[in-house]
Specification:
about 250 residues, alpha+beta, 8 strands, about 30% strand, globular
Length: about 250
């Protein structure tokens, strides 16, 4: 709270005489026009500073997105692990992006979250015995990870694509449906509903270890949306995982 300055009264004996001594030039009061020009210059300087800051943030965000994509080249979204120095580099860039989040309260306007997104990085990994059990070392490879968010229905559908090499090459997908509800201005609670694998041939391949597969991608819990704009979304879940997704142009994944 601003405090008022109290000026002590000046004794009458110390008041200067009303006449102005010779050789002393009186200072003209500042004109109203001068004050207006000063205020205009100040406002202009503030606006320029604000504009420069916004432009700088935009350039930083654009560069960070490019750097993340470049660093992820050949890393298969990190799903099978990656060198620790690259992991650290990516996650440092993620932190900077989060600090520049243009939509800090994303659940207030859920339309920004709706539509189809493609996973480009995650700290979820399939390593060692899990990878062997799922046959991901041999003839089954991972395709895109897509997420379709239906804001009106409060539903999210995750699709993990698989390609199977063999005499008859075919592809399929694991489909996980979940519902979500808002729990804060930046967080949603997620509840697993159902899951399936199509086609049946692929389900037969995974049936024995289906619980392992579902355990890796089960979305139950909460998700904090730490960054979202027109093309990129970052989230952190209750299990300590990070997810970076780009908006996808897929219309019928």
């Amino acid at each position: 709270m601003a405090s008022k300055l109290l000026h002590p009264q000046i004794p009458t004996s110390h008041v200067l005489p009303s006449s102005t001594p010779k050789n002393v030039k009186t200072q003209k009061p500042l004109s109203t026009n001068h004050n207006i020009h000063t205020n205009l210059r100040s406002n202009f300087a503030i606006k320029v500073a604000e504009h420069s800051s916004t432009s700088e943030d935009h350039l930083t965000i654009t560069q960070l997105k490019t750097d993340i994509n470049n660093t992820l080249q050949g890393m298969n979204r990190g799903i099978f692990g990656m060198p620790s120095e690259k992991k650290t580099e990516i996650e440092e860039m993620v932190k900077v992006l989060e600090s520049l989040n243009p939509n800090p309260y994303p659940t207030i306007d859920l339309d920004k979250l709706g539509g189809c997104w493609k996973l480009i990085y995650s700290t979820i990994t399939i390593l060692g015995s899990k990878r062997t059990k799922l046959g991901l070392r041999d003839f089954i490879t991972l395709g895109d990870f897509l997420q379709v968010i239906d804001v009106a229905k409060g539903k999210a559908v995750n699709m993990i694509m698989f390609n199977v090499r063999g005499l008859n090459l075919f592809s399929g997908k694991l489909i996980i449906e979940a519902s979500f509800k808002i729990s804060s201005k930046s967080r949603v609670d997620i509840r697993y509903n159902t899951s399936t694998i199509v086609p049946d041939q692929l389900m037969n391949m995974f049936r024995k270890n289906y619980d392992v597969l579902l355990g890796i991608f089960n979305p139950d819990g909460w998700l904090e949306i730490t960054y979202v704009d027109e093309t990129l979304r970052i989230g952190r879940d209750d299990k300590g995982n990070i997810f970076v997704l780009e908006r996808s142009k897929e219309t019928n994944p």
